[in-house]
Amino acid sequence: MEKITAANVESFQNELTSLIEKIHTESNPKQKMKYLKRIDKIQRSISAYRSKSKLSRETKRDLIAYSFIAPNFIGFCVFTLIPIVFAFALAFLSWDGSNPIEWAGLKNFKSLFKDKFFIAALKNTIIYCVGTVPLTMIVSLGLAILLNHKVLGRGLFRTLAFFPYVASLVAITSVWKMLFHPSKGPINNLLFNVFNVQQENLPQWFTGSLVLLSMIMFSVWKYMGYYMVIYLAGLQGVNGELYEAAALDGAGTWAKFKYVTWPQLSSTTFFVIVMLTINCFKVYDIAIMLAAGGNGELTLNSTVLVYYIYQKAFIEWKLGYSSAVAMVLFVLVLGVTLIQFWGQKKYQEG
Amino acid sequence: MRKKLISMLLATTMAGALMVGCGSNASTDAPATDASATDTATEAPAADSSAEAVTLKWSIWDQETTTYWQALADGYMAQNPNVTIEMVDLGSQDYMTVLATELSGSGSDFDVVTIKDVPGYATLVQKNAIQSLDSYISADGVDLAAYNGATDQVTVDGSLYELPFRNDFWVLFYNKDVFDKAGVAYPTNDMTWEEYDKLARSVTDTTFGSQVYGGHYHTWRSTIGLIGCLDGEHNILSGNYDFMKPYYEMVLAEEKDGVVRSYADLKTEGLHYSAAFSAGDTAMLNMGSWFISTLINNIASGEYDASLCGNWGIVKYPHADGVEAGSTLGTFTGLAVTSSTDVPDAAWDFVKWCSGEEGAAVMASTGNFPAIMTDDVVTTITSLEGFPTDDASKEALKTSNIYLEVPYDANVSEINTVLDTYHGMIMQGECTIDEGIASMNEEIGAILAQ
Predict the structure, then answer these.
(1) What pLDDT digit, counting tens, does each position of B265-308 carry?
(2) For chain A, does the N or the C end have fewer beta carbons within 10 angstroms?
(3) CB B265 to CB A182 under 8 A?
(4) How many angstroms separate the CA atoms of B390 and A233, rounded?
(5) What is the distance between the alpha carbons of residues B232 and B249, in angstroms, rounded to a whole number?
(6) CB contact under 8 A, A181 and B269
(7) Domains observed in chain A
(8) Residue A181: which of B12, B268, B425 has the nearest Cβ?
(9) Do domains B50-168+331-381 and B170-329+392-449 have the same CATH topology?
(10) Cβ of B231: how many Cβ atoms within 10 Å?
(11) Where does B50-168+331-381 sit in CATH, by number?
(12) Do A178 and B269 touch (CB under 8 A)?
């Protein structure tokens, strides 16, 4: 846009008048839009010139808006956005946090798939997610439906179901470890005394192949209360008339659930599944607390991706390699979430 | 209009404050690095630095429960009134990880750091976070021979980056009351591992309700995996771990027969070795000499029941067949000077003092083993109130060969991770001993081949 000065302000005025005339006679809507934009531009420039300010009023308005966003945005940039971008870059580099960064190209990714520990971590994380997500969803939905009825002590049961979520993870893992202690725990004692399981066949809940099962059970128990509350909120939003209508059509309990509750809850379910999936892939604390013991080390049967990222980054200081693992986790979560979005869209359209 | 102006002003000042906040950090860093550059360049004479007030920031762990930090700092400050030592407690659980993170950026202002283990030391050396002490050592004529070869095992490409001030070695603790009750003779200062195994089995009582465990292995890998290193021929950097097999077999057999508590149990309940020993149902415990001062202090304070574990003794670590008695594993704690310190001379002086004979005297007076072991030190420790009075226990402190638990290697933290993982898997029965050792050989072979 040309600069408006005292000398050429007249010519702009003239252009403006001619444009306004043209716009009245123009029939092509596209051409009309063009004229309108041009008029807007000239008007802004002229008003800026008249007010003797370097910035137009609109620019000023934008600046004010940006200045309000700035405090938060700068913080976000410095502490979140830049680190994220840097982490992406690091996956292709080799760095120990102090010495000069070296280019690694795809080397990090190539060695990933030969790494026994990475493969174990990936496998365990996926098994954990596949076990936890549907189970938590079903249990929390079931609880929500049960506790949505006006039963005696409803408030108490709701609180009880929600309690594990509020309780400190460290405290409740200690309790679980006591309960499931391989030789002194009440669960194994019950199996030994009541069900006559042989001493050497007693399940070792925190080692071997059972450790993932323990983690899944723990996670379902801890998080069912939270998702139950979300489902309860969803159930409150279901219109009661729909049930009445269904009842008039002769629908039983199952039919009511299948044709009214479930479809009405579809967006809640979508939210629950997305949140659950993301949280499951991020699992770290549960694995460390349940399976690692005093030394904080996980074996091949219990290691998970986030633990492996931590180990590679802060114990061995292979920041590039660890970022490559983080990238795999990112792609995994992104992929699963995209599939869920697509499924949700399809479901709602269909 | 005015409102708008004010709001805009406010917003810009807020934004500005943020920028300034970031900026001032950078500007405080700058003079610090400048200062260190000039200091190292001019090599200010020691007399100058002792005249002006200096504050040394020192990283440590568990200040509350460890007696010697304060004792060392006080001892040094008494002799050097111009120096103030500021201790920063980073906790013992993941001390080296926290320290490495602290020293990664340019913002940390530690002058002296304590080095807890060799893998952490390797990390700091590779990150250039601590400086080589060679020039100081030769300038001040420090005699490394006093450290009994310990410093040789942490020399990196001919340079030394830390000086040890505390040195621990493994001994066998035993509870005399348990042996008396079982009518079995006490362990001796010259036992092989087979003899130890037999002895442990002979005092074991598996009767439900009154169990007595003949031995106890803490969940560290070093309690079992390193026994094979005692012959002086094998070490954990060798890439072949077949030598660990007989000891894994011994321990797993002991677990099966109820001679020791099972690893899986210990891991689940997180039982500390001190709790196991002080409960009075454990006959023998292989542990580092640091446990001596813990036992003395906690029995004196009444934290451990003296009627259960008050009558304890120590003997030399059992040894492999055909090896001299008194061969044991050792681990030391060192001090290093950071690369970013602006008072390297003062920091070095403190390191030298703690590692030297004066520091050694302070360490011994708190019941801990200094890096320099002299006859005086042994006398000080054995004459401590609460130290066992029998001759065997005094004799047990005399070692012949000390093999470092972990010698230096560039890949040592990676090797450690692999060994720890398979140690856990073998001990939990997630794989057989042969499978576990084969995996160790394979994976560490790959690391060493890089």
Answers:
(1) 888 888 889 999 999 999 999 999 989 988 998 899 998 998 99
(2) C
(3) yes
(4) 73
(5) 20
(6) yes
(7) 1-54 (no CATH), 109-349 (1.10.3720.10)
(8) B268
(9) yes
(10) 16
(11) 3.40.190.10
(12) yes
